[in-house]
Amino acid sequence: MRFERREHPSASLTLLAPIGAVLAALVVAGLLIAIAGANVFEAYGLILKGAFGSRLGFSETLTRATPLILTGLAAAVAFRARLWNIGGEGQFYMGALAVAGFGMIPALAGLPAPLVILLCLIAGAVAGMILLLLPLGLRLKFGVDEVVTTLLLNFVAVLFVSLMIEGVMKDPLAFGWPQSVPVPREAELPKLMARTRLHAGLVIAVVMALAVWWLQARTVFGLRSRAAGLNPRAAAFAGVPLGRTLVAVACLSGGLAGLAGAIEVMGVKGYVTTDLSPSYGYSGIVIAMLANLNPIGVIGAALFSAVMFVGADSMSRALGIPSYIADVTVALSLLTMLVALFLTQYRIRR
Amino acid sequence: MSVLLDILGSVGMWEAVLRIATPLIFGTLGVLLCERVGVLNLGIEGIMTFGAMVGWLTVYSGGDLWLGMLAAALGGAVFGLLHAVLTVVFGLSQHVTGLGITLFASSFSYYVFRLAVPTSSSPPTVEPFRAYPVPGLSEIPVLGPILFTQTAPTYLALALVAVLAYGLYRTPLGLAMRMTGENPHAVDAQGIDPIRLRIGTIMAGSALMGMGGAFLTLAAFNSFFPTMVQGRGWICVALVVFALWRPGRALLGALLFAFFDAFQLRLQTVVDGVPYQLFLMLPYVLSILALIAMARRARVPQALMQPYRRGER
């Protein structure tokens, strides 16, 4: 058996790859559900019903997709330039913490809400940027691989959040629970649907996906970041300033992940805890890969993950299957997607 | 100052160093093996989680402690095989595949754990490995309790360092492995199949990672709970760079690291006014510093992260 590279990977195959990957992941996860002793079709039916079956479920799915779109974009823009930002989780927390900290400034009280929201979003994005620029600096200056440093910084970031919310940012009214002071009312994102948690963050996330698509498809920066990823040496020969391009990519990627954290605090929680993120940062990596690093595709992949997470929660309550099945399915779909992409690029010959 | 000396002078502290180092030794040797044949294995964090879970589950359902270690090793090898098929046979991105393995292996572990223990406020415990004082040697003053009153897997980890150091540098197989990490074409020209060698080595390395995880639930603690690996796998990946891909230095790195960890644990209890989170950050910050210190000196295996396909350059 050997593999032969396809000269022209067909467009339809490339589009089918994520669908095939998701189906394969669902089949394997179905086996795990069956082993646990439940009816697979009933389980998947309940997942769909939980995610779409009611107004509340549907709004929860969209609420859950919001941070996932942003962390997915964060990973997608970085991976495209071969910047291995695995630190989305930490950047998410720094963005969240920055909003809570920024909200403590007394001068904000008199400002109009849209301005406060804008400033808070910027604060969150900048915090995420800083946490990614650190490991990028180490790579550019000392040649330290950013995969491991960004991974390690995730743990440092969560501990830093814990330090702050048990220290200077602790909410004195939270009955001793370690949580930050709430963000000011002016910084709360408006709701999109009454009596649900769905908030304007979803619009911001979708606009960001479109903006990233435009940046990558229509600007010099997009071309350069792609060239830097495809072949850094050739790109350098062609006059692409590698260092500067990577810094810009890191600002965008870290900024998006920080924005995800900021929006989650401003739209859903209102304050920061150390369990704010059910690993949104890591899921973002899966979502970016499922989308084949395409910013518009990220929206679809984030929706798929959100359906799994929200649906599995309600399915779990009904059938007693651990809701970790959602994490298993999403993680599996990353592996199956890698294989599917491979099959679009290679032919298997006997 | 006398507080510091008290800590450094206590036998308990030095005994803890070797205990804390053990999972890191297993894990670091595992990563080292994979990278020596040219494959980055970021699956380690998930494989350690799976080893911790399956080792615990085996003993919890009535198996022997060593059966638990074996199950963890086999489980690790299976995930290693998956990683090898995707990265070596298909030549997929080693970064992304490894992360995928980690996400899959850890969520799968939590799923199986929740199936086995549906509801629990406190995780069920097992009877862990007891310290096994080596007859005679454990009676040496000071050194005896520190080096020779450990649990059996710790002795195994130390023995593995010697085996790997000898195997990698003094045997034909070790030479072939190192060569595969440098230049797989040359290995192929010698009539050795670098693809098979890579697959086998990744499975062996992943088995070690699984055992490192099992040490956590079967010796260091006595129960399993989600997120218990706490980035130890990533620390091992950093330690391999610190070790310059040599088993002896890997042991040194793990010990040095464990020393700081044991030291900060004891310091936390005596130093007032410093938030405990700063102490907990120390291991991760130290790993990053170790990476910076070694980045210039590191001589990375030349074929690391380069898939090998026969007849392709």
TrEMBL record, chain A:
<feature type="transmembrane region" description="Helical">
    <location>
        <begin position="198"/>
        <end position="215"/>
    </location>
</feature>
<feature type="transmembrane region" description="Helical">
    <location>
        <begin position="147"/>
        <end position="165"/>
    </location>
</feature>
<keyword id="KW-1133">Transmembrane helix</keyword>
<protein>
    <submittedName>
        <fullName>ABC transporter permease</fullName>
    </submittedName>
</protein>
<feature type="transmembrane region" description="Helical">
    <location>
        <begin position="324"/>
        <end position="344"/>
    </location>
</feature>
<feature type="transmembrane region" description="Helical">
    <location>
        <begin position="280"/>
        <end position="312"/>
    </location>
</feature>
<keyword id="KW-1003">Cell membrane</keyword>
<keyword id="KW-0472">Membrane</keyword>
<dbReference type="InterPro" id="IPR001851">
    <property type="entry name" value="ABC_transp_permease"/>
</dbReference>
<feature type="transmembrane region" description="Helical">
    <location>
        <begin position="12"/>
        <end position="41"/>
    </location>
</feature>
<keyword id="KW-0812">Transmembrane</keyword>
<feature type="transmembrane region" description="Helical">
    <location>
        <begin position="115"/>
        <end position="135"/>
    </location>
</feature>
<dbReference type="Pfam" id="PF02653">
    <property type="entry name" value="BPD_transp_2"/>
</dbReference>
<feature type="transmembrane region" description="Helical">
    <location>
        <begin position="91"/>
        <end position="109"/>
    </location>
</feature>
<feature type="transmembrane region" description="Helical">
    <location>
        <begin position="236"/>
        <end position="260"/>
    </location>
</feature>
TrEMBL record, chain B:
<keyword id="KW-1003">Cell membrane</keyword>
<feature type="transmembrane region" description="Helical">
    <location>
        <begin position="39"/>
        <end position="59"/>
    </location>
</feature>
<dbReference type="InterPro" id="IPR001851">
    <property type="entry name" value="ABC_transp_permease"/>
</dbReference>
<keyword id="KW-1133">Transmembrane helix</keyword>
<feature type="transmembrane region" description="Helical">
    <location>
        <begin position="96"/>
        <end position="113"/>
    </location>
</feature>
<dbReference type="Pfam" id="PF02653">
    <property type="entry name" value="BPD_transp_2"/>
</dbReference>
<feature type="transmembrane region" description="Helical">
    <location>
        <begin position="199"/>
        <end position="221"/>
    </location>
</feature>
<feature type="transmembrane region" description="Helical">
    <location>
        <begin position="274"/>
        <end position="295"/>
    </location>
</feature>
<feature type="transmembrane region" description="Helical">
    <location>
        <begin position="152"/>
        <end position="169"/>
    </location>
</feature>
<keyword id="KW-0812">Transmembrane</keyword>
<feature type="transmembrane region" description="Helical">
    <location>
        <begin position="65"/>
        <end position="89"/>
    </location>
</feature>
<protein>
    <submittedName>
        <fullName>ABC transporter permease</fullName>
    </submittedName>
</protein>
<feature type="transmembrane region" description="Helical">
    <location>
        <begin position="12"/>
        <end position="32"/>
    </location>
</feature>
<keyword id="KW-0472">Membrane</keyword>
